[in-house]
Write a structure and sequence with these properties.
CATH class: Mainly Alpha
CATH architecture: Alpha/alpha barrel
Helix content: 40-55%
Largest sheet: none
CATH topology: Glycosyltransferase
Radius of gyration: 18 Å
Number of strands: 0
Number of helices: 15
Distance between the termini: 16 Å
Strand content: under 5%
Order of helices and strands: HHHHHHHHHHHHHHH
């Protein structure tokens, strides 16, 4: 893993505003309604998003905290396994190929860099599946995850390679995500208008849209959609625990708290009482080791945003368990509930968790020029 890429991927999360030229462009999708926020609050959040995105586009941002030697070794072994197990067509996995290939691409760009032939081959596979903006069959239940992951991977590579074909693909992918957002700012399985809202889906859609915006997406509805997503996640935050719910408000779930905090941060809402409440809960108690891989990833991202220099302490239990679960060949099998997605999925997710500082949105840079 090359150290210059530890500084590169995300100026955060994952992490969205428009320049004057962008604001003057025609929109392919009209902005969604934004109940619950005043015009003044929306304008302030747009200004904050714009500042983050401009810093990304100018190659600025703070340094990523260094990874421990143990994390570096585990990540290197994981990336070597991914490179050795890529399918001939550039994909990984057997089921959910588009989403899993996007995750593997994301992990490789964070570690090996965007110039590796395997990365370009993977992006070629992803883009080759796209029809009318959709990278997968949108009628499939898990399509929102795969659409968001594919848009995220293509946007990251578009930004770093400045490739017009990638940029067009990314724009069309983002438009699909925008069309799938509901009036309350949420997303559901299958982009359904009738299904339950879902925090785990919303966080990936928000990350993908933010990354597309940082890569130069010109749809003026993107910023509105990100802000409205933050309104939705706050609606399922428990006032007493500060935790965010999965589909509705209740006791909340720790794995969803990282996701909720990340959405708020990307939406320019990190100064809100809701963000501070969730952050206090996470920082005071640390993160437990009971989590799905995607939940662990978002917890690690949130911890890195909250306290870059002590993020490993906050999620020490997660990092240690991930390292202990790694097989001798460098791969992971993953928790039982996620084993159906295969080793490529688990290995990419675990590699992302371990190298979180390389991809947290607050350090996403346009190129490796700023060393």
């Amino acid at each position: 893993m090359r150290s210059r890429n530890t500084d590169v991927l995300v100026k955060s999360l994952t992490l969205c505003a428009l320049t004057c030229v962008v604001l003057s462009c025609q929109t392919a999708v009209p902005p969604v309604a934004q109940p619950g926020l005043s015009t003044e609050v929306r304008e302030l959040r747009e200004m904050r998003i714009r500042a983050m995105v401009e810093a990304v586009q100018e190659g600025g941002g703070e340094r990523a905290p260094a990874l421990s030697e143990e994390c570096v070794e585990a990540v290197n072994e994981a990336l070597n396994w991914l490179l050795s197990n890529q399918n001939e067509d550039g994909s990984w996995g057997g089921r959910n190929k588009v989403g899993i290939t996007a995750l593997c691409t994301y992990a490789l760009v964070a570690g090996e860099g965007d110039e590796h032939p395997a990365v370009k081959k993977a992006v070629g596979f992803i883009m080759g599946q796209q029809k009318d903006g959709a990278y997968i069959d949108l009628s499939a239940k898990e399509s929102p995850y795969e659409q968001a992951l594919a848009t995220l991977a293509v946007s990251v590579c578009s930004r770093r390679w400045d490739n017009e074909g990638y940029r067009e693909s990314m724009e069309r992918g983002a438009d699909v995500i925008l069309r799938g957002q509901r009036g309350d700012g949420s997303w559901a399985y299958g982009y359904s208008d009738r299904g339950q809202r879902d925090t785990s889906i919303s966080v990936w859609q928000t990350e993908a849209l933010w990354s597309a915006l940082a890569a130069g997406a010109t749809n003026a509805a993107i910023c509105d959609a990100i802000i409205q997503s933050s309104v939705d996640v706050v609606s399922v935050q428990a006032e007493d625990t500060g935790r965010f719910g999965y589909v509705e408000k209740g006791l909340g779930a720790e794995s969803m708290t990282g996701a909720g905090l990340l959405v708020l941060y990307l939406a320019g809402a990190s100064d809100t009482p809701e963000y501070r409440l969730g952050a206090d809960i996470l920082l005071s108690g640390g993160a437990s080791t009971r989590w799905p891989l995607c939940g662990a990833f978002h917890l690690a991202q949130a911890a890195c945003l909250l306290s870059p220099d002590s993020w490993e302490k906050t999620v020490a239990g997660i990092l240690q368990q991930v390292i202990e679960m790694q097989a001798d060949d460098g791969s992971w099998e993953g928790p039982r509930a996620e084993q159906k997605y295969g080793r490529a999925y688990a290995t990419a997710m675990c590699a992302l968790i371990l190298q979180t500082p390389a991809i947290r949105p607050v350090i996403m840079e346009k190129s490796s020029a700023a060393q």
